[in-house]
Amino acid sequence: MATPAAGYHGGGALVRDRVANIALAVIVLASSLVALAWVFYVPIFEAPDETVHFEYSAALYSAGGLIAPRDVAHMSVPPGRTIPYPTYLESQAAVAVIALKPDVKAPAGYGGSSYYSAVDSSVVPGETDQQLLNPPLLRYYPFGYYLLDAAVMGVTSLFTKSPVALFFAARMLSVALLGVSLVLTYLLLRRLRTGPLLALALTGVIGLFPMTTMLSSSVQSDSLSFTLSTLALLAAMELRRRSHDMRWLTVLGLALGLLLVTKVHYFAIVATAAGAMLVTQRLHTKDARRWPLEAAVLVIPAVVLESIQVWTQWGSPPLIAAAQLGDIPDYRSALAGGIPGIAGYIGRITSFTFLDHTFGREFTSFWGAFGWLDTPLVLGTPGVTVAAWFLIAGISIALLVCTLVRLTQVTYRLVRVARRGRLRCALRMAFSNPVAITFFLLAAFLFSVEGYPGIQGRYYFPLLPAVFWVALKYAPRALPGKFGPALFRMQAVGLVAYTIAGAIFAFPTLAARYYAHGRDPVPVARETLTVDAHSGRYVITRLRLPEATLGVGRLPPNRVAVVGWAIDDIAAAPARSVFIDVDGAPYQQAVYGDDSPQAVAALGNSSYDRCGFDAILDTTLLVPGPHQLTVRVVSAGGDRLYAPGPSLEFVVGATVGPGSS
Q1: Chain-centre distance of CA 12, in angstroms?
Q2: How many domains does the chain have?
Q3: How far apart are the first and last CA of the chain?
Q4: What distance in Å separates the CA atoms of residue 498 and residue 175, rounded to the nearest whole number?
């Protein structure tokens, strides 16, 4: 039988490739549609740190390009440009009242056309030009993602003058980046010699994973970091096979350069992994051909782009003092304590890492905590959710142990190879898989700057292919016999099942968090109510003043937020509504019907689960200085107005630090 000609593929292989491509297209489309639905379903700014990220994007859009902090005092917004003032949008979305308070819901009518129209038609500049063009992250984060986001907003502004539309356009950039990232993820997994079926399954898991959907529907730079990290790793894997391919060297250089001006630490991690693979590969083969040219192709994009970043920050004071460096994780204090101090430090960090990795904030934020990480995913019922999370925690513990064991096994074998006089071979083998290396480098990085490899699960998002590859293909090899394949199959089935369930149950979780039924204000004509001398029963759980700095979830000037719960204790039932009085005079009707777990806990009755109220008071007409606030509860029947309870003082014109009350 004649040997098939070069480039010949059997019919079966072509059919399999075509089916795989169709399946990949379906996965990308489904993941993108789910993320797109989240763009509009999650209230404005109810994503992690979305306020400060959008402020950066809006600043670059408003300026029409890059901003140097030294020039802000002399800059102004071009006339005629539609500006999505962040402070105004934050005020309309009530993020200061909702964020980190699960019992407080979205504004009444949120999500409807009338709500968006009202926001668009009542725009009030919330900042001066200098405040708008000097966002908090301007000095902290590189410009890459934010400049791209500003460009998307600029294109959108050619077709609409709606500030709300500009905000959603900024969010939708992350959806577009998700589609690109998933295609690159599939190609990367295939280069890792993962079978087509497993590569498709993992791509689907990554695309529909709850954390992926949350981040890919919000304004934040990790979406671009995910795309660029995956592209760089794919280029590195191609260069592992064809080390002198100038096309892939160019792709790698451009991807790393763009990553440098997107997220510096991901650049350092991916560049170290890819560079170590290339260098050790050349050392092992003693190949020095064209290395000056190839090194220049890799380095020049990063040098050029970083020069732009340095130019924008030139003349600005340093962000971190030299004395702060190296002491964030308390290393110095541990070393000063000698052997007992070091031993105690290692013990504390090891136990804390273990608990956080399996039951703590890292665990919950990785597997599904939405909003400002205040909304854990509920898989149908709390009981099912707890059972699933205990199962995941158990598997996570096993994977952590297996990963450490496997790492020890590999290190021992590589040392043996090196001791036999084959150091170059050992180094090449150690760094031959840049995908796995990025996972370990990220854990080491987080440990070095924070003291433990955790913090928030979303920090692993740009390297999710590495995370799941290590869990599925690396860790199980630590087990003997059939135990390794069994752990692999258990993980694969569990990940697919959890991802599908998470994609489905995320929507009712979000609905319960942000859209509680019966929350719209119940119109009550106060003048028709009979005044009752009995004091209404209520508790003010939070009083928010305007915040002095551009921070997360801040209140704009001339606003005071009141949050609490109230009941009709005479009728032993939820109240009908709540009025807010200031200085003994009627001021505003509050929104009643929020979730009220505090009321349930205090009264021991689950029927009081929707007795919460909230109101944002416009204090523009009040004179600066102290004022007295009281609450008037309307009876369950809607016919009596109970007497006010003790007053609470607030000061008009005062501000507090971010997050204070």
Answers
A1: 42
A2: 2
A3: 83
A4: 21
Q: 593 and 488, same structural domain?
A: no
Answer yes or no: is 136 within a domain: no
Q: Which residue has the higher pLDDT, 626 or 103?
A: 626
**Is 548 inside any structural domain?**
yes
Q: CB-hemisphere CA count at 13 Å for 520?
A: 7
480 and 535 both lie in a single domain: no
**8 A C-beta contact, residue 566 and residue 613:** yes
- Domain that residue 400 falls in: 264-278+324-512
Task: Give the up-direction half-sphere exposure of residue 233: CA atoms within 13 A in the CB hemisphere.
Answer: 36
- Answer yes or no: do 443 and 554 share one domain: no
User: How far apart are the C-alpha atoms of 32 and 65, rounded to whole Å?
Assistant: 28
What was the pLDDT predicted at 8?
Answer: 46
Shared-domain flag, residues 595 and 464: no
72 DSSP assignment? G
Note whether 126 and 556 are within 8 A (CB).
yes
Q: Which residue in 396, 485, 473, 491 sits closest to 435, CA to CA?
A: 473
Instruction: Give the rounded percent of residues in the chain with a pLDDT score beyond 70.
Output: 88
The answer, yes or no, to whether residue 462 has pLDDT greater than 50, is: yes
Confidence of residue 553 (pLDDT cuts 50, 70, 90): very low
pLDDT above 90: residue 660: no
Both 356 and 503 in one domain: the answer is yes
Residues 434 and 492 in one domain: yes
> In this structure, are 500 and 543 located in the same domain?
no
How many CB atoms within 10 Å of residue 6?
5
How many of the other CB atoms lie within 10 Å of CB of 569?
Answer: 17
578 DSSP β-pair partners: 633
Q: Say what the pTM is.
A: 0.80
The C-alpha atoms of residue 300 and residue 41 are separated, in whole angstroms, by: 42
Phi, psi of 224 (to 5 degrees): -70, -35
Do 437 and 415 fall into the same domain?
Answer: yes
**Cα–Cα distance between 339 and 218 in angstroms, integer?**
46
Q: Residue 181's pLDDT is what?
A: 98
Spell out the residues 6+ positions from residue 40 whose beta carbon is closer than 8 angstroms to its own. Answer: 111, 168
